């Protein structure tokens, strides 16, 4: 097999049209077009507000007008991972409408579908040098976001290819007994206890408060992936590696370990390595809107998060009443009023987090089933710009590039990953990890 070149980004949350004459966009376009595969995480829905919103969202009710997809294709993207925590912001109708527009634009996309078989199946891009498969997975979302299996007697449900997970919080026995005493003084757990008595939920070992589970053990929290979901995804990887030359797994996941969100939860790391064990050439993570560390596992790359590529969640054209209710605003207020209230005029949240506006683009080649080197190209997203320009990618200048790469080196240190900086780009030599 000749070398297949791949370039990938983190989250694309584009809500404004891209100016095709902008020199920074043109630089990125030229860089993308030098690769066979150009992948982004499509954290968007497409419609003209002819659909109703869900009662809850992934944070912002994300949506853009359908012509946005023309800009992303113009920029060079030819593969889209679509399973995200925003996929059902506008209900099942919003998801199906998005799929209609992606199909009309002849996009290759994965992770969403009219049923689970569609959402989980690999999607393929044929390049001059070989075929590349994409499997898109999401772990952050509501329990009703998961696509439904088709049955002989029941229609499948639209949704996402979801990898659910379980959390167990461990405490000493004395602490759990004290927790039980406190809980039993109120009705906070009455509903859970009733559902257990009536057989609507399974009793948990240990002690459960609602869906939060406690066990006796060394203090801490452990997360594990849902085995049924993992088995389904492993089957898709096996299918993909028999049908394609390269297999990519894209995973949208916000969950983290400890007080800060730059360290992935236990189940994320276990799942990433499972994907590589089963034949994936690369695991590409995104979701938390910041960078997470990179790992080399069995001489294949794991990118726990590539951060943002485009982030314009304060520029969505319209929001439903539930969004305004959060900030005690009424129908006389505008989206800008709500976005300003959320960020306290740009002083808190993502709008005030420089790390959400500094990221990387990664590229590598797969030749004869092997990857020798990963190139890491830092980008900035206009952190100090006005809202009208904020969130668009620019190749980082040398000072910003070195700072971003040094931060990534620190995040990757726990995996023993060596990243060398040369001329403002990072490089990982996978052959050094034999």
From TrEMBL:
<dbReference type="Pfam" id="PF09587">
    <property type="entry name" value="PGA_cap"/>
</dbReference>
<feature type="domain" description="Capsule synthesis protein CapA">
    <location>
        <begin position="5"/>
        <end position="313"/>
    </location>
</feature>
<protein>
    <submittedName>
        <fullName>CapA family protein</fullName>
    </submittedName>
</protein>
<dbReference type="InterPro" id="IPR052169">
    <property type="entry name" value="CW_Biosynth-Accessory"/>
</dbReference>
<dbReference type="InterPro" id="IPR029052">
    <property type="entry name" value="Metallo-depent_PP-like"/>
</dbReference>
<dbReference type="InterPro" id="IPR019079">
    <property type="entry name" value="Capsule_synth_CapA"/>
</dbReference>
<comment type="similarity">
    <text>Belongs to the CapA family.</text>
</comment>
